UniProtKB/TrEMBL annotation:
Keywords assigned by UniProt, alphabetized: Signal
This protein's record includes keyword Signal: yes
Organism of derivation: Myxococcus virescens
Signal peptide: 1-18
Lineage per the UniProt record: Bacteria, Pseudomonadati, Myxococcota, Myxococcia, Myxococcales
Keyword Signal appears in the UniProt entry: yes
PANTHER family: PROTEIN TOLB, PROTEIN TOLB HOMOLOG
Family from the record: Belongs to the TolB family.
Name of this chain's protein: WD40-like Beta Propeller Repeat
Amino acid sequence: MLRTLALSCCLSSPLAFASTPELRTLTGTLHVVAGGPGDQTDPHVSGPLVAYTNESRGTSEIRYHDLRTSADAAIPNGGAFDFVSDISDGTIVFTRVSTSSAIYTFDVAVDAAPRELAPEAGSSRRSAVIGGRTVAWQDFGYTGVTSQPEIAVYDLDQGTLTRLTDDTFQDRAPAVSPDGSTVVWAKCDEQGLRCDIWQARRSAYGFSSQALTGSEGEESQPDTNGDIAVYASTRTLDGVTDRDIYWKPLNGGTEQRLALPGMDANPSISGSLIAFERRDPVKNDFDIVLYDLSTETLYAITETPENESLTDLSVDADGTVRVVWTVSENGDFNVHAFTFKLDDEPGCKLAAVDTPSPEAVCARPGTWPLLAALEVARTSGQPNGVALGFAGTGEGVLCVDNGYNGENSTAGWVWINGRELVDPSRFKQGVPLVATRAPLDGHNSLAALISGKPGSAFRLRVYAPPAVCQPAADTSTGARVIPGRALKAVSSSSSAVSPATFVPEGPVRDTALRGCSTGGGPLTLSGVILLLACWLRPSARMRKALRHSHRAL
């Protein structure tokens, strides 16, 4: 968190908004995919089908739901514990725990029962993902060491199993491109602290594997559409540590970043769209947002007081888009979806709205987007200063939260674009908030100084006016209109990565490569019981843990 900096005259501009006068919108329909007793979580979508985990009364099964017909069914499991699924073109993969931890597949249109992939006695596998006819998973059976998972790939058509990684690092959170030709994952050090994104691309002779990111940050939660890889990364830039969404071409090129205040995580990509979880630093709960790479537009799919997470999306050839996520409601977890169709032409009919006072915006921002957030703290000596560049247009609002993370300040100055908006006379005794209108001209500079008593502090927030759109006359009943916010990505410098390593595909696993644990094997029955004790839901926090075992750190 930024605390005290020397005042700088050279301001960066981490946010950049497109200057088009037309605003884009999404018009679609919200669905409740699963909201019954127990927990429904970790949804994944391909076309109209959603696969998700359903847990109730100590049992866990994989269910699938058709968004067109609302038909919902379970995959038979005979009392086993099934969880963490993925889906591609009607084929579902998931982890099944009984006397071992194995990967199963189920074809919705064909199979009456699921089948195990590459069966192996005492297997220890989890976090299966699928793209096309390629399945990837974390495999602990090669080493027998729970801190050294490897990435394995299975070809459903050829029946071949390939070990992609062979090292002492922690390889986890795999994802597969829709055509099955590319696998991405996070490779972390032995302590699981330093993580980078790796890729493996299939040719006629096997896979070529290499790092995609280097030492610039801590990366995790990758996904790919076959052309680019998207991931979350924690980095310290200009003294500020933040977690943002990044992406990079698989064939080499400039890394891009969405520079947004607050924590962003768990990205999923399909076509030109990226869905991810976003925690606004003021709202302080997780929402689902969508970014269109082709139009450089950001959409808030959810803006509720509940926590939404574990998102996935699918874009059909006809432009139909389906976004799914998990939401916490009344102590349980449910699955929701939003369906819309991409429109080639931008358009937004602005609805007339009343302009609230600056004090009202600061107290309840609502749909006003947060453009910048900054703190300044008083030490001693010369006045302490902070500076930040940001983007935005219109009649914005500046909020100064006096005493934030410190004592109330008695003297301070705030400028936007060189215009003094707050001076020491505004810091009156007992006034916790200073609010004022702030004209924004596209590329803006925010600067502040604090003087007075050491230990005093205040926070700055800048909001832009919302784009409030109303449905066109032919919008169907029950449709929801989501206004877009133009947002350009920021180019990021990348460090050098390793050369490619060739990994030939193999028809079978070499059992001699399997390691042994002190318990006598990669996963004993007592180990299964311990896994079940961890994976069964003792509290609401387990939903996030399940997701992170699948895609995150």
